[in-house]
């Protein structure tokens, strides 16, 4: 009996398939020949001639039965021969079973459906309790290029009318689908198409569209839509007001955002914690923490409890302002009231302390996260790895990447960019390119940041041909070269003296509509000045102005430095004056460049005056300032009178704790024309001071003594300089106080009589004083003893 039933079932299916196949192959002229199915109007498709085929068999009923029986294998076999007209009529008969229709079109596939059938299916599926299936189908229709947005809308309207549905929910879903696809223009088009049909979207749909416009920073469009909603009397909700408050905050209109709360309340809406959080976040993002605190207090005054997001915004604002102690204190209060910080809040604190250079505290917050069961994110590791690279702690950064992998977290594009940039800054091109290859092998697409770093390191390694080749490869890919990438490539060519190529790239930028900035022009100006083409660099400054690019202090300092190196101090000071007129105050680099130029022109007195001006304006001279002045004073006419000043200047380079003794020059030594050996003396002072600063406690630094200089020819100073340089690089300087004193014991005995101790000048003294060698024995460096000690190594009196 069972075999007989199976045989009958197979026979029935075979006969049904044959009928369907015959019909779809065009054996019935009324179905396939009279009217093209895709062009047939609905009334033709519903005509009796289509319902009654072969006088006995109703094809639509057979297909409907196959669908209801879930006979997907049969349907799959005949799917390529099913006509749109047949599918449309079958869907119409299944309009009361949206779940079955959903399964049918999924099994059948989009390729078998024309836009009319697809829209009918979507309208039917939209009748399900959950909107998700219909929403997914609409997103596929929009993204799959089935038809234009307007055509899809029109076909949905026809399908809705065909099924006699009063609900416009499917049209709302179309707007939402456009929003989820981040296509605001299509969503707005649907909004106005609905309005033209006399239909109003739900407020939830409008809120989603407003939210998308907010995310896309299209605030003006958001206000237009909000006004249209008001005109159409689409009643706002608290969510609507929160979105518009957010729009105001993004526009920087914080007072209006604050006033909007009163407007809400006037309409009978109570602000929520989200409302206040939005405004607090707005104030914090603009650095207006006092205003954020006022909103915070008002919030609590109205009985609305702050949540983790509230505290997170305030902590983020404090960290951005580098008020880290206050941020940490607020974080402590947050945990006291049992609010659980998010990973984002921890990352904010970690970022703040990393930027400050306090990696110890940054890592302690990471450890606290782990203890409290809050999983560190990829962003957590990215912040820490970046900070380690900034401090040159490459090995620790590598260990952190390994730890990250051990926690099951894969590096993202940002991680790779941090690593590649870090190794590029170190000059390790091989490691950087290995990471780039690894990035590609893992399917992570490099960004413009990635390629900019690689171009940078190639430029610093004088591998500009490779940099150009890499740039050409990028242009052919989806990554579009941006301003920063062009600047890196131009910098590489300028750094390596390829100015023609650098200026060609400027033209390429113009051709690609990438506007240059002040960095672009500053780089080109520096390249020209490096080659002594200062007048051409000056022409670039004028070109910047013509193009509406404002020069900055670097632009002016570049020209000042260029003119100063040429000794053209008249033009250097002209540029300085223009800089002042443009509202830029001179910087330390400005003063150093001018002092260096004056010194090279043997204008030491003028340089000294500039130093006084510099100090009066609150600048602290650095090594470059002092060495330029020493050189300038040494070249001046009043060398003997300047000796004490030079000594004080040299001591000042190394801080107030280092004292330099007054030089006792023998009367018979002729100083005129011998400033070179005086400069060699300054090198000697520098080297001894540098060694002392790293090898001895600060209390011992008060005893650097140079004495009886000048009892011989100037060659003594030249040899002395060589001795100390050789000694420094071969680590022959004693490394402890005791060994230094032992080595110099003969020198100390030379001053057993305190009255013969040399005079000293400290930077803070106006007159020399005697050093009590018995009470406080100094570290004495006797040049003659050092010369004698190393004369043999140097091959005699060279």
TrEMBL record:
Subcellular location: Membrane
Keywords assigned by UniProt, alphabetized: Membrane, Repeat, Transmembrane, Transmembrane helix
One Pfam family named in its UniProt record: PPR_2
SUPFAM superfamilies: TPR-like (SSF48452)
Taxonomic superkingdom: Eukaryota
Keyword Membrane attributed: yes
Coiled coil: none
Gene Ontology CC: membrane
Residue intervals passing through the bilayer: 643-663, 675-694, 700-725
Record carries keyword Transmembrane helix: yes
InterPro entries named in the record: DUF716, PPR/CCM1_RNA-binding, PPR_rpt, TPR-like_helical_dom_sf
Membrane topology label: Multi-pass membrane protein
Family of this protein: Belongs to the TMEM45 family.
NCBIfam families associated with the record: PPR
UniProt-recorded name of the protein: Pentatricopeptide repeat-containing protein
